[in-house]
Amino acid sequence: MFIVANFLIAVAKILNIALTIYMWIIIGRAIISWVNPDPYNTIVRVLYAVTEPVLYNIRRRLPISFGGFDFSPIIVILAIIFLQTFVVQTLLRFAVQLGAG
Known about the structure:
There is one protein chain. This protein has helices at residues 2-32, 42-61, 72-100, and strands at residues 65-66, 69-70. By secondary structure, the chain is mainly α. It has one domain (2-100). Strand 1 and strand 2 (69-70) form a beta hairpin. 10% of the residues are buried.
């Protein structure tokens, strides 16, 4: 059973790292949107390509924009924090129980 427990721990850690990286990408996208970025810049294009599908779905389902301020990055960051707190921690605790049992 310890093999399954170690696998779940590894999955939880990788998921946590991936969610953290994506959260920083969302933050970078939000900061770049405050200035007038060059749309042909490679970094700007990558940030938009990685984040726009998620942000677009949030904007489409919850049209919350007040005074030109887009709240969809905040919602995505809150969702990431929820996933890190609930899913990652649940996987870790489940792995610990498997390893102890």
